[in-house]
Every structure is written in C-alpha cells, then in structure tokens.
Amino acid sequence: MDTVIKNGTIVTATDTFRGDISIKDGKIQTIAVNIDPGNAKVIDAEGRLVLPGAIDAHTHLAMPFGGTVSSDDYEAGTRAAACGGVTTVFDFALQTKGEGIIETAQRRNKICEPQACVDYAFHVAITDLTPKVLEEFQTAVDYGIPSFKVFMVYKKEGLMVDDGVLCKILKKSKETGALISVHAENPDLIDLRTEQFLKEGKTSAWYHYLSRPEFVEAEADKRAIHWAKSLNAPLYIVHLANKEGMEEVKKARDEGYEIYAETCPQYLHFTSDVYKREDGRNFVCSPPMKGQESQDALWEGIKTGDIATIATDHCPFQSYEKDWGKDDFTKIPNGCMGIENMYPYMLSEANKGKISFNKVVELCSSNPAKIFGCAPAKGTIVPGSDADIVIYDPNKDFVVSKDNMHSDVDHTIWEGTELKGYPVMTLSRGRVVFKDGEFLGEPGWGKMLKRRRK
Ligand code: DUC
Ligand code: ZN
Ligand code: ZN
C-alpha cells in the first residue's frame, strides 16, 4: 500500500461508518476498522468525513459562446474542480458542421488532455445530425462515449435541433444504449418575448429572466418528456429549474419511464430576485434562476429522489464580458461559475441538516457515475474503485470569495456565501491534488474516461 487514510468517518450514498482506507497504485485496496500502515504515508482523518470525489456531469470549459469563450480553460476548470472536491468532470464537446461524434471528442481531447488536472469525459453535443452521424451512434457507444446532448434552444448560435431531429436522436439512443441529455427551453417564446421587451426599452437583467420564465422551460421539459415516453427512450434533463417541469419528471418516473433530472446549486440557492440586483447580469445564465416555488419544488424533488443528480453548468465569463449587456440583456454572455462550489455548498446544506450527507454523495457522485457509465471506478468508496476521495472538515467554516477560488474569473456569484464545513483535502487516483486551500495537482494528470452505461 502507498497511503492509508486513518480514523475518518466514511460516507457513501448508502452507508456511514468509521474505518481506515488503504490505497495502492491509485486504487482503493482495503477498507477495515484498523489498518496497520507499515511504511505507507498516513493521512489522519480523525473528526472528518471521508467521501467519494464529486462528479460534475455538466461543464462548459473553454467554450466559444456569447461572442467570446468561457474563461476557464481545461486547466483552470479542472484545477478549480479539484479544489472543490470534484474529481471527475464531464465537459460538453460541441459538434461542428459535418463533424463525426468521435472526431468531435478527439478534437476537444487534444486541448483537454495536456491541461486536465482531474479525470474527465465528454458528452458530445449533436448540432448537425447527418445520416453518417446517426450511423455512428453505435460506434461511439462502443468506443466509450455513450452520452450525447441536444439543445432545444440557441437557434441563432447554430446549436439547436428541432423536434424531428430530437426524436430521431432519441430513437437511435434507445437502439444503441446511449443516453440523451436535453437543454429544454422554448426558443420561439424566448424570441417573441425578447423582441417585445427590447421594443419597449426593457433591457435590464431582470428581463433576461422574464424572457424565459418558468413556463418557457416547463413547456420544453414536457415536450422532451413526451417524445421520450412515446419512444420509450431514456432521457436526462440538464439544469432543471422550474416547478412544473419537476412535476412532469415525477409523473413520468412514477409511470415507470427512465427519466433523469439534474439541477444545479445556483437554482437551489438563488431565486430570480438576483436579477434585480445591481450586479444582476453576473447571474445571467440559461435557464435563469426561478421563483421561490420552483426552488422549493427542486428541494422536494431531491427528497423524493426525482432529482437524480446535481451538476454545475459551469460556464464563467469575466466581468467586462458580462458588462457588454449593461444596457441590453441579450448581449450578456450566458453562464455562471460553480464547479468549486457544488460539493461544498451541498455538503454545507447537509451539515446544516437540510438533507443527509449520504444524499449529497448520491446526487453529486454515485448517481452521475452510474447514469453516465463510470461506476464503480468512480462515485463510491469500495475496494477496487479509483482512490478519488475528499476529506471534509464539518467544523471548518468558510466564506466564499473570488480570492479563495481557483478559477480564471474575476468574480463569483457565490461571493459572501457562508458555508458550514469545507473540504480540506482532495485525492485524485490516490494523489493529493488539494490540501488546506492550496492546489497541489498538475495539468496533464487527468485521464479521459471510456465509459459503458449498461
Ligand atoms: N447555458 C448557459 O447559461 N451557459 C452555457 C450554455 C447554457 O445552456
Ligand atoms: Zn444548457
Ligand atoms: Zn450547460
């Protein structure tokens, strides 16, 4: 063995127990009550929780978007991930016109591989469904990329697919064992409302919210679920943020359909009121934060198990870029930061008693690992799994500030948020990559995961 984590309280999605963990060659070797470390390095976790590393199944690193490129490249994004206890990052690789699925992932991997500080995978966003791409689904699944994404919005940006294409994709996913994620909002309603607001001179960030309020998202959620049900295809809804959509997910799941919903910490913590703030444009992302009723419904969905995962939609932009939309909300690049905040925020909510620590592990680690095909190597603490481990001090209070974050962005929407408890160490395949506020990893360490869903 190389390392032993001693005296901690191990928390998985299902169990909480005191024990030691030995690590060898990046993998968990043994879990027992008292392991003699011999010459191995000892990490004392007395008074701390020992958790599986989180998986952020939804990021946009170095993504060209909104007239610029999101400010965290693969190095900065995965560095911030490590410092927030995230040991696996799923990024979206956007297909360009005519490009194949594997070709898209390989193009992004050339950029990502030398930069990644933790392990990673790609969901390929399909934007140009040619017959060749449809034929390639099986090859991509067999290659280890069994998850694709489609946007039901962003027509002008060239990312949107229409309902016919969505249905073709869902049908093929059913046949090949792939899982389709959707960004669900209604593009025509957004355009209609935006045009009207601009005509009336209503240009503040508040109108970003009003251009795509609850029902704009709910309609698309219902439509996507309707098509998935009609084809009996599995479906994963990213960044669910509204009550009506939540209800539709619950209904479909109660009927026995394989529908997964992801939400993000920003929807659990902030409401649409943020768009009335002076710095409201910093919170502009799509879908926008919603009202209190929606937030309550998401927390309820967590409790009932109808929210399957938490991820971040991490897509930061600098203040000067957000400022492009000071006088016109349509010019604000859409996206917020969160990769370093997800696990600490959710664990803090558990520490305050809102949900259990096991539930946080389930949402942020075990479920994404299972759903996207990288369990049991990721998402749990068992002999044989990767030693992706977070040591969490439940007594360490922490106030988020741009100065204690590790992203390449000059502000954070989480500024001033008070957290009860904080990660003090992150191990990625047995290597300490974060300790006491300091990043200790290196670019090029992270490996691309090949995945298998079933
Ligand atoms: N929404 C955002 O806010 N940013 C990136 C892409 C998206 O769908
Ligand atoms: Zn999205
Ligand atoms: Zn996204």
Automatic annotation (TrEMBL):
- The residue stretches assigned to a coiled coil in this entry are none
Which InterPro entries does its entry note?
A: Amidohydro-rel, Hydantoinase/dihydroPyrase, Metal-dep_hydrolase_composite, Metal_Hydrolase, Metallo-dep_Hydrolases_sf
Q: Indicate the segments forming the Amidohydrolase-related domain, all copies.
A: 49-417
Q: How is it modified after translation?
A: Carbamylation allows a single lysine to coordinate two divalent metal cations.
Residues with the N6-carboxylysine modification: K149
Which Pfam families does the protein's record reference? Amidohydro_1
SUPFAM superfamilies to which the protein is assigned, alphabetical:
Composite domain of metallo-dependent hydrolases, Metallo-dependent hydrolases
UniProt keywords (A-Z) are: Hydrolase, Metal-binding
Whether Metal-binding counts among this entry's keywords is yes
Q: What EC number(s) are associated with this protein in UniProt?
A: 3.5.2.-, 3.5.2.2
Q: Which cofactor does it need?
A: Zn(2+)
List, alphabetically, the Gene3D superfamilies matched.
Metal-dependent hydrolases (3.20.20.140), Urease, subunit C, domain 1 (2.30.40.10)
Q: Which GO terms describe its cellular component?
A: cytoplasm
**Listed GO molecular functions?**
dihydropyrimidinase activity; metal ion binding
Give the family this protein belongs to, as stated in its UniProt record. Belongs to the metallo-dependent hydrolases superfamily. Hydantoinase/dihydropyrimidinase family.
NCBIfam families listed in its UniProt record: D-hydantoinase (TIGR02033)
What name does this protein carry? D-hydantoinase
Query: Origin organism of this chain?
Result: Clostridium pasteurianum DSM 525 = ATCC 6013
